[in-house]
Amino acid sequence: MLTVAFPAAAMGTNCYVLATGRGQECLVVDPGIGVEPQLREVLAELALKPTAVLLTHGHLDHTYSVTPVCGGERAAYIHTDDRYRLKNPYDQVSAPLLAMLEQQFGKADTWREPEDVREITDGETLDLAGLTIGVRHAPGHTEGSVMFSLDEVPDGLPDEAEVSSSLLAGDVLFAGSIGRTDLPGGDAQAMQRSLRDVVVPLPDTTLVLPGHGPATTIAHERVTNPYLSEIQGRPEA
């Protein structure tokens, strides 16, 4: 699987581009703040044609560029429980942060919803751009946070990587940490359930492509991530 990842211009949000190969249709995952120039370069260099945008959740740092990337021709996919966040994601941003974003990237009143928004739910399978993507609802960071699973792994990984599938984890799971739960719509108990019921059962050979920071694996996080260690050592409630 052709996989390109690069950080947004603010907040270090990872934007991913996925395709079966050069010159093919592709998916754009979490187009955050200021990604458009670099995204255009990636698409031109690899002759890729975006066919859809996948959103792991509705926070502004993951959705900021969704409407221009969709461009009236492509659908944006988001979980039903986070659909409301696309009406105006600025509503969930603190005043100081909003002022900074407006100064650097434009006024809030320029926000427009994508013309075509598709609501997704847990367990759904999406067949897009020649790829099959599983939807795993994992609330806690937001009500509608999801992780996208694929049986493919990025091209060019070394043999010793020992991974057999990929997980676009959004802000559910990071290398050594998890997404915060103290923002509006966050829920610490829901996050604990998501870690226990959705993350912990994943195979060790799962490559984790998080919303922020470096890639990791479930095997590595199982033994190094304190949040997973806590969950694995706790009896089910």
From TrEMBL:
| Needed cofactors | Zn(2+)
Q: What is the lineage of its organism?
A: Bacteria, Bacillati, Actinomycetota, Actinomycetes, Micrococcales
Source organism superkingdom: Bacteria
Give residue ranges for domain Metallo-beta-lactamase. 12-212
* Keywords from the named record: Hydrolase, Metal-binding, Zinc
Q: Which InterPro entries match?
A: MBL_Glyoxalase_II, Metallo-B-lactamas, RibonucZ/Hydroxyglut_hydro
Q: Name one GO molecular function term.
A: metal ion binding
Q: List the protein's name.
A: Hydrolase
- Membrane-spanning intervals of the chain: none
Q: Which organism is it from?
A: Luteipulveratus halotolerans
Pfam families (UniProt xref): Lactamase_B
